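Please, does this match?
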Amino acid sequence: MSEEKIILSRAVRAVKIPSGDPMELPAGGSVVITQSLGGSYTVLFADAYLVRIDAKDGDALGKEVPAAAAESGEPCVIDEETVFKQLRLVFDPEIPVNIVDLGLVYDCKIEKLSEGADEGKHKVVIQMTLTAPGCGMGPVIAGDARQKILDLPGIANAQVDLVWSPPWNQGMISEVGKMQLGLI
């Protein structure tokens, strides 16, 4: 990706990387996009702060804001393959590989709901980890994963649990992920 300087068209909320602390970037502030994957943007602000900007705020960067998949209303089969396809749209803001190919997703349970207002819809529970237990971006990445699942038509509830056992290691990265990182 070229390092093009962009002037923010409006103030925008961002999250500092790697601490996960919120901050507001002012209108007129200068940023450089370092990563644009999964709909969010990792940018360098004021040549000092690496921050993450949500896809919904892409307009401040002059980017088109994507419509959520659920808004399309198109039916889809809810199975592990479909959920993992959505999770491949979630990225650690510092690593240009999705959380599935990084080996961060440990388990996926799908339950079809059989009663109440959500009858016929699905609940999805994901167990995932992070590359390091102290990562301040953990809640942000887990929130991204949850939202990507909720964007699927037919999902009533999505739960993402961060787990630490087994500890993540580079051996968990898929062959595709290793190729993207230049490890093979």
Observations:
- The first helix runs from residue 69 to 72.
